[in-house]
Specification:
Length: 243
């Protein structure tokens, strides 16, 4: 998994109410990253303390909750045989909850990346209009560099393939992978030569996220970036109390 670069928001921490929600009432909206799952399991089994509540939102019309934040905590606890997790229930459609996306960027050899994307069956076409198309949600990604811009046609499945290729190439040390919270930061770093290319896509809307989970589908990792006006305070719950 790559490094994250997010804007400095200065979000205050806040003591919030949490409730225990059954793990089998939670629905993911993103694929998991194996390494993050392993790290969580190592941490929780090492300390025996669960300190970061899940962030959930009621799925309208279903007795289920969307996992807004906490995919690896959910999967990790399930794997350990736990039954429930301390959770903060959000009013998802309130203006307080914002959804943005992450922009994967890399430093490395463009030709190698294109080769690997093509090996997955993806097309990579030079296209000056790519960024506008990406922002309108018409293509999977625009691949934007200083001089060249490409279209990667497709939608959700193609985004998953791109994500898989980047993750693999990062693990192999072929590229340096950085996820940007803001396109502007990526552009600035590109100007400084810190990255070579950034993948741009349209951020999903909240309705889209809900529709996706209702269909039982998931996005690729780091498709959504949810921002709240607060960060929940740490809690002190024993792992053994989650069985
Ligand atoms: P995710 O559940 O997708 O947000 O990813 C795993 C998260 O678990 C990371 O954000 C870690 O900060 C968090 N984490 C690591 N160790 C613990 C722990 N012992 N209790 C609760 N959360 C943890």
């Amino acid at each position: 998994m790559g490094v994250e670069k997010v804007p400095k928001y200065n979000i205050p921490t806040k003591k919030v109410e949490y409730v225990f929600i059954e793990l089998d009432k939670m629905k993911p909206h993103e694929q998991l990253v194996q390494k993050e799952l392993e790290e969580f399991i190592e941490s929780i089994t090492g300390s025996g303390d669960f300190w970061k509540p899940m962030l959930l939102a009621k799925v309208p019309g279903e007795d289920m909750y969307l996992i807004v934040d906490g995919h690896h905590r959910w999967a990790g606890l399930e794997k350990l045989g736990a039954k429930k997790a301390p959770s903060v229930i959000l009013d998802y459609f309130s203006d307080d909850v914002k959804v943005y996306t992450w922009y994967p960027a890399f430093k490395g050899d463009l030709n190698k990346v294109i080769e690997r994307l093509k090996a997955e069956g993806l097309e990579v076409l030079e296209d000056k209009e790519a960024e506008e198309k990406a922002e309108r949600g018409e293509i999977a990604f625009a691949l934007v560099g200083k001089e060249k811009i490409f279209t990667v046609p497709g939608a959700l499945n193609e985004q998953k393939k791109v994500s898989k290729v980047l993750d693999e190439m990062s693990v192999e040390g072929e590229i340096e992978l950085i996820y940007y919270g803001l396109k502007e930061d990526a552009r600035e770093d590109m100007g400084k030569g810190e990255i070579d290319y950034v993948f741009i896509r349209k951020a999903p809307g909240k309705e889209e996220v809900m529709e996706l989970v209702k269909r039982g589908e998931v996005y690729s990792p780091k498709t959504t970036r949810h921002v709240l006006p607060f960060i929940p305070d740490k809690i002190d719950v024993k792992l053994e109390d989650l069985f």
